[in-house]
Structure formats: structure tokens, C-alpha cells
Design brief:
Elements (H helix, E strand, L loop, with lengths): L7 E5 L4 H12 L3 E6 L2 H13 L4 E5 L5 H14 L3 E6 L14 H29 L2 E6 L11 H21 L4 E8 L5 H9 L4 H9 L10 H11 L11 E4 L6
Parallel strand pairs: 1-2, 1-4, 2-3, 4-5, 5-6, 6-7
Helix pairs in contact: 1-8, 3-4, 4-5
């Protein structure tokens, strides 16, 4: 553990996948971490792993698209762990379909979790960051922001998060708050496993097929994203803001 113990981080959607890896990495970096996800009980395993390794963590149940729940969750983190000055907006869902088959509900669900959720979480957390004159915000975008068949909803949301990030950087910079975006390529998680199931492929085969399109010739792991998040969330990254970092094993996907 480093000496950054005074910082408190919130990682949304961190009961599993990329969020869980980011939460564990920030705890290793010395931060107290709120492991926030839809189901509080589902967060406990990650909290236990962090505390067993000597870190500090709190399980928080919250739907990031629910305004009242977000306000209550962020205030609870502040009172139980300390002012949240690091926020990683990672919670995400897929509702893939070609546009002619996509329902308005599938459009709204994706917008609500990724865009509305990141907006609500950031608005609630920036109160603490601006007061502390310090903050680190990281938004999870995707290579899909550049367009991906079957994902008009998701690619629009992920491109939206890039604009959101740049505007946060402009508005909040004078308060010592940076905002950056990570755009992962193919990362092996339950999300990509579900995509493999949807297209009728074994996950290992699906990963191998993806790797043939990736310059470093392997699928990404959640820890690859956690390493990038660790840098953006560090004290020393204070002059890096408004950036989109593609973490995709190559120039983009
Ligand atoms: P994942 O394994 O599906 O995990 C996403 C987590 O977000 C789940 O624990 C989920 O909870 C939670 N969540 C969903 N809706 C929520 C809400 N309204 N409020 C709070 N939590 C919510 O996904 P992942 O692969 O780790 O992806 C993490 C992020 O990276 C997402 O934003 C995703 O779009 C992005 N990303 C992933 C990849 C990839 O290849 N995996 C690539 C590019 C970008 P439940 O389990 O209860 O649903």
C-alpha cells in the first residue's frame, strides 16, 4: 500500500469485471474505495478481497441512473469513508441490436446507465472535489464510440462520454479536478462473455477470434484497464486532463 490513504474513491459497477479490477487496484494504490453496484450484497466479495489485502472498502448498493439513490450513496460514502475525490464511472449495460430491431426501451436503458448515470454520479461527487480543491474523474468509454454494428445506442453513449469528459475537464480544472476517459477494446469479462453467448460461440473461441484482430495478439484483461485508471487517478497525473486513452492492444480496436 502507498501513502495515498487519505483519498476516497468511488468505482461504479465494481461488483465484477473491469470495475472490480479498478476498485482493487485503487485500493492497492492506497485509496479507501466505495465498491458501488446495483446489488449491495454482490459488492461484498470485492470489499472482502480489499480488506483482506490490508485496504479499506465499503459496499454500496445504488442504481446510478436514479437521482435520489445517487445523492444518498455519494453522501453515505462521504460520511463513512471520507470525501470522495476520485470517481470512476464504469457501470454499464449492453442492449445490442440492429437499429431496425432496436426498441426505444433498449435505447433509453443504455443512455440512462452510461450517460445519465455518469452525469448524476459526477454532479454529486464534484461537490466534494471542488470543496477539497482536488479531484480525479475517469469515464469508461469504448472503441465502440467510433461505430460498431449492432450498437447504435452503446456507441452513441460511449461517444457522448468522450464529450462529457472534455467538458468536465474545462469546467472543473480550476478546482484541481481532472477528467479523463478510457476507451477499452475487447476485454474478457461477463459483458463480452454474454456477447459470445448471444452470437452462439464458446467464450474461449470468441476470445481467440478477437485476438486475431488485435495487434498485441491477445484479448485484454480487466487489469489492463485498471493500470490505466490507476495512472489517471494518481496525484501525479494532475496536468493530464480531457484525454481519451484507447486501451485496446493497438491504435484502436
Ligand atoms: P460487466 O462485467 O457487465 O460489469 C458491469 C457492472 O455494472 C455490473 O456489475 C453491473 O451490475 C453494473 N451495473 C449495470 N447497471 C448499473 C446501474 N444502473 N447502476 C450501478 N451498477 C450497474 O461489464 P465490464 O465488461 O466490466 O464493463 C465495464 C465498463 O467498461 C462498462 O462501462 C463497459 O461499457 C465498458 N467497456 C467494456 C468493454 C469490454 O470489452 N468488456 C469494452 C469497452 C468498454 P449487474 O451485474 O447487477 O448488472
Amino acid at each position: 500500500m502507498s501513502d495515498q490513504i487519505s483519498r476516497t474513491a468511488i468505482v461504479t459497477g465494481s461488483a465484477r469485471g473491469i470495475g472490480a479490477a479498478v476498485a482493487k487496484r485503487l485500493a492497492t494504490d492506497g485509496m479507501a474505495v466505495a465498491v458501488l453496484d446495483l446489488d449491495e450484497k454482490a459488492c461484498q466479495a470485492v470489499v472482502d478481497q480489499i480488506t483482506e489485502a490490508g485496504g479499506k472498502a465499503l459496499a454500496v448498493g445504488c442504481d446510478v441512473s436514479n437521482e435520489d439513490a445517487v445523492g444518498a450513496a455519494v453522501d453515505r460514502v462521504a460520511s463513512e469513508l471520507g470525501a470522495p475525490t476520485v470517481l470512476v464511472n464504469n457501470a454499464g449495460v449492453l442492449r445490442d441490436n440492429l437499429i431496425f430491431k432496436m426498441s426505444a426501451d433498449d435505447w433509453d436503458t443504455v443512455m440512462n446507465v452510461h450517460l445519465r448515470g455518469s452525469f448524476l454520479m459526477t454532479r454529486a461527487a464534484q461537490k466534494y472535489m471542488t470543496k477539497e480543491k482536488y479531484g480525479r474523474i475517469v469515464n469508461l468509454s469504448s472503441t465502440s464510440a467510433q461505430g460498431n454494428r449492432g450498437q447504435v445506442n452503446y456507441s452513441a453513449a460511449k461517444a457522448g462520454l468522450q464529450g462529457f469528459t472534455k467538458t468536465l475537464a474545462i469546467e472543473l480544472g480550476k478546482f484541481g479536478v481532472t477528467a479523463n476517459s478510457i476507451a477499452p477494446g475487447f476485454i474478457a469479462t461477463d459483458m463480452t462473455k454474454a456477447t459470445a453467448e448471444r452470437v452462439g460461440m464458446e467464450f474461449e473461441e470468441f476470445k481467440k477470434a478477437a485476438a486475431t484482430q488485435i495487434p498485441v495478439a491477445r484479448a485484454g484483461e480487466p487489469e489492463d484497464i485498471a493500470a490505466a485508471a490507476s495512472f489517471f487517478c494518481s496525484e501525479e497525473a494532475g496536468f493530464v486532463s480531457g484525454q481519451v486513452l484507447y486501451v485496446a492492444g493497438g491504435p484502436k480496436d
